[in-house]
Amino acid sequence: MAGPRSPQSRPPGAAGTEDAPDHPVIDLPDSATFAEAIADRRLIAAAAISALAGLVRGFSGFGGAMIYMPLVAAIYDPRIAAVTILAVDFLCSTPFALPEVRRCNWREVWPISIAMAIGVPFGTWLLLTLDPIVLRWGIAIVVLSLLPPLAVGWRFHGEPRIPVTVGVGLFAGVSAGAVQIAGPPVILYWLSRVGQAGSAVSVRANIMVFFILCGVVLVAVYAWQGLFTAQTLALSLLLGMPYIAGVASGSFFFRSASDRLYRGIAYAIIALAALLSIPLFDPILR
C-alpha cells in the first residue's frame, strides 16, 4: 500500500496563504481506499500490534503509544503510525478525560500546555522532513530512554518553577509532534507532587486535561499539514477497532492483577517493542 500523499513540509511558524496545503485539510476515505487497505498484507500484523498496545493501555493505564508507534512505524512508516495512533487514542481518551476539566489546577496546566503547543509544530516538522529510517531510530531511542525512569519510579524532585515547566512542555510538544510520545516527561514531572495533601486527584486531572489539549493541538497541526489523508483515516478506523477491543479487554481481565505485576509486564512489552522496531530487524517485521 502506498504511503500517504506527501504534505508540504515547511519550517514551523511559516505563514502566508501560499503555504496552505493544495489539497483538502482532511481527505475522507471511500470504499476503494478501505478495500486497498484491507488487501494489504501488512494490515494483519499492524492490527495485532494495535490490539496488544490497547491491551497494555487497558490494564496499565499507559504505554499504548510506546508499543504502537515503533512497531507500526516499522511496518508502514512513521507518518502513518503517528496519524493513526493520534486519531484512535484521542477519540478513545477524550470522553473519559472531559470530566477532569473541573478538577484540574489550571494554573499548573496552562503554562505546560502553552509550551507544548509551541513545541508541536516543530515536532511535526521533524516528522515531515526527516528520513523515515532516522525517525524510526529516533522513536526507539525516545522510548528506551524514557522507559527506565518510569520503571524505577523516578520523580522530579526540584521546585516546579516556570523555566522547568516550560522546558518539560516544549520537550513533550516536540516529542508528540514527531513521534506521538508526550506522556512520560509530563507524568514524571507532575507525579513529583503526589503525596502532598490532596494532590493525587489534582495531578491525575492535570495529566488527563493536558492530554486533551495536546490532542487538540496535534489534530489541528496535522490537519493543516495535510496528514489526514484518505489512506491514514481508513487505517485509523481499521486499526482503531482492535485497539479499542484491547483496551476493553485489558480493563476487564486485569482488574485483579497486582500493580507491580501489570506494570512489570507493560515495561517488558514496551522494551521489546522498541528493540524489535529498530531497522536492523526489518526482515522480521516486513
Compact description:
The chain is built from twelve helices and no strands.
Structure description:
The chain is an all-alpha fold. The protein has one domain (30-285). It is built from twelve helices and no strands. It has helices spanning 31-39, 42-60, 64-75, 78-97, 106-129, 132-152, 162-179, 183-190, 199-224, 230-253, 259-276, 282-285. Helix 3 packs antiparallel against helix 4 and helix 3 (64-75) packs parallel to helix 11. The longest helix is centred in the C-terminal third of the chain and has 26 residues, at 199-224. The radius of gyration is 18 Å and the shape is globular. The chain starts with 30 loop residues before the first helix and ends with a helix. 43% of the residues are buried. Residues 1-20 have low confidence and may be disordered.
Structural class by sheet pairing and helices: mainly alpha
Could you give the distance between the termini? 13 Å
Number of E-type strands:
0
Radius of gyration: 18 Å
- Oligomeric organization of the protein chains: single chain
Poorly predicted parts: 1-20
Query: Would you list the SSEs in sequence order as H and E?
Result: HHHHHHHHHHHH
> What is the tally of helical segments?
12
Q: Roughly how much helix do the residues carry, as a percent range?
A: over 70%
The number of distinct structural domains comes to 1
Average pLDDT for all residues: 84
- Strand portion: under 5%
Largest sheet: none
Principal-axis shape: globular
Considering the chains and any ligands shown, give keywords for the structure.
286 residues; mainly alpha; 71% helix
